[in-house]
């Protein structure tokens, strides 16, 4: 059911947010870290709608810090501390999951977020499939602009890595046997149960 999936998505995103907080909070000058509030599933067997969700009520101005299609320019996202930290959170998750997963629809009151989404590649990531299209990952990669919080966490700019990949693939495509072996390796790699923290760090 949609309700169960919603719960699963938000609570999965919440686990990533906790890991992000554990890494960001000790950094000097980082300050408060956005938190995704927990959402609970309740079963009401006697009711017409047997499943419902319960979560803390957020009181205050509700702001969308990231937008599903990524094209909408949201000044609160760009100019507010919470908005910038949400963009950094997206970048952090993207890098930690090797570009396989992105938390989308970051919205809420101040640093408390709810109703988030997750986009994954078609295969999913570690047995988890998101509820948003893969195109959000591509748009994020194209549109994300790093801010001071990305720098504090030492995240790599997506622009330079994207250009490097483009160059690398164009040189490989000249050499046919090479490009076919590369293609064979990619699905294998994706199926490997990878450690959550990439070994490069």
From TrEMBL:
Molecular function (Gene Ontology), one example: protein serine/threonine kinase activity
The transmembrane segments are: none
Recite the UniProt keywords alphabetically.
Cell membrane, Disulfide bond, Immunoglobulin domain, Kinase, Membrane, Repeat, Serine/threonine-protein kinase, Transferase
GO CC annotation terms, alphabetical: basolateral plasma membrane
Q: Where is the composition biased (Basic and acidic residues)?
A: 189-201
Q: Which residues does UniProt assign to the signal peptide?
A: none
Report biased composition (Polar residues) as residue ranges: 170-182
| Compartment(s) of residence | Basolateral cell membrane
Q: Give the similarity note.
A: Belongs to the protein kinase superfamily. Alpha-type protein kinase family. ALPK subfamily.
Designated name of the protein = Alpha-protein kinase 2
The scientific name of the source species is Hylia prasina (green hylia)
């Amino acid at each position: 059911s949609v309700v169960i999936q919603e719960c699963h998505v938000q609570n999965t995103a919440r686990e990533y947010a906790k890991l992000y907080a554990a890494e960001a909070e000790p950094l000097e000058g980082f300050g408060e870290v956005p938190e995704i509030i927990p959402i609970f599933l309740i079963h009401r067997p006697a009711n017409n709608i047997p499943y419902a969700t319960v979560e803390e009520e957020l009181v205050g101005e509700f702001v969308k810090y990231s937008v599903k299609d990524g094209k909408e320019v949201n000044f609160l996202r760009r100019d507010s501390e919470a908005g910038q930290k949400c963009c950094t959170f997206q970048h952090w998750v993207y890098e930690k999951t090797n570009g396989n997963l992105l938390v989308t629809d970051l919205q809420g009151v101040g640093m408390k977020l709810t109703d988030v989404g997750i986009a994954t590649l078609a295969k999913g990531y570690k047995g988890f499939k998101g509820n948003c299209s893969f195109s959000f990952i591509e748009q994020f990669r194209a549109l994300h602009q790093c801010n001071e919080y990305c720098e504090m966490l030492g995240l790599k700019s997506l622009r330079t890595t994207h250009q490097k990949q483009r160059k690398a693939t164009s040189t490989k495509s000249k050499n046919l046997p090479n490009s076919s072996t590369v293609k064979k390796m990619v699905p294998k790699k994706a199926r490997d149960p990878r450690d959550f923290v990439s070994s490069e760090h």
